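User: Teach me something about this protein's shape.
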Amino acid sequence: MYSELRDHDPVHHVITPDKPDHDYYVISRHADIWAAARDHETFSSAQGLTVNYGELELIGLQDNPPFVMQDPPVHTEFRKLVSRGFTPRQVEAVEPKVREFVVERLERLLANGGGDIVAELFKPLPSMVVAHYLGVPEEDRGQFDGWTEAIVAANTATGGIASALQTVGEAVGSMMAYFTELIERRRIEPEDDTISHLVAAGVGADGDIAGTLSILAFVFTMITGGNDTTTGMLGGATQLLHQRPDQRRLLADNPDLIPASVDEFLRLTSPAQALARTVTRDVTIGDTTVPEGRRVLLVYGSANRDERQFGPNAGELDVERHPRNLLTFSHGAHHCLGAAAARMQSRVALTELLTRCPDFEVDEAGIVWAGGSYVRRPLSVPFRVT
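Assistant: First, the predicted structure itself:
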């Protein structure tokens, strides 16, 4: 479908008969999406990231939108504060814990001859990393994982973030109460985590309720954006390696190729398949003019397979491709803050998997995919050691 869109209808106009005023446009070519992602003034995130009009009102965040639903300069200021918790040092600090976690879970799978590699490894791994970045103490990780599981399940089921807020109110409420207390704790006992950096910068201090709400919105964004995407990449990569034993053997025999191959897996799996923007003026893309105020869906999953950017074999796995200008983490002002952490988790997981189990099988017929059209991730990948 993506190929057909790119070739024949690269700016596709979607009109819903029962809601003609909810029309939107679908962009599928790499060059168009790359240009749109870097032009935040024209392609705004401030009205939400889905094709649903009135999204912020629907989720009750119109007065305090999460920073991913803001544009510069407001977005830039908060991003600067948050980015202090996403330094290379932070990635290096958590890598040994990631490797220990991956090895322990893989050894358990190997001892059992296989199992569901998503449930055992690819789902709990990013939850552990997100907890680390947010400064959740070890003794609280169990309840944090429970909240994460409930929210991620709802977030990818049907309607994105709005669905998560509406269907798991109890989990969200408990989690927000917990993090409100953690914010206060970090004022007295700061650590090297994102919440501590925000608190140290004065966000939410002295009765600044809006500041506290912005931290809580950031926590929610971290959980919804940092979990299922990594799960999707690793689950999808395992399927690709099963489909291409030649590529798997190349990496197993040459582990020095694995770090660079991560971008190829990110390209083909594209866990964040698409996000929307709202155009702030009439804008012409190709032969189509999108009117001011209309939603535009940027289909990253299509852009990452565009033959115009990645060559005639763009749909095939080539671990030595070294693809440039990926859109897996978007681009421009909204480039994903967690990109380095996601790459690190992927590198460690793939290295340990191919070192300990270079020969494995995936029951592709048994793979269960999550619902929803924004994030592509497997709920289950049956994995067998051979």
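Now, about its shape. The first helix runs from residue 2 to 8. Residues 111 and 195 are 39 Å apart (CA to CA). If you'd like, I can walk through any region in more detail.
User: That's plenty for now, thanks!
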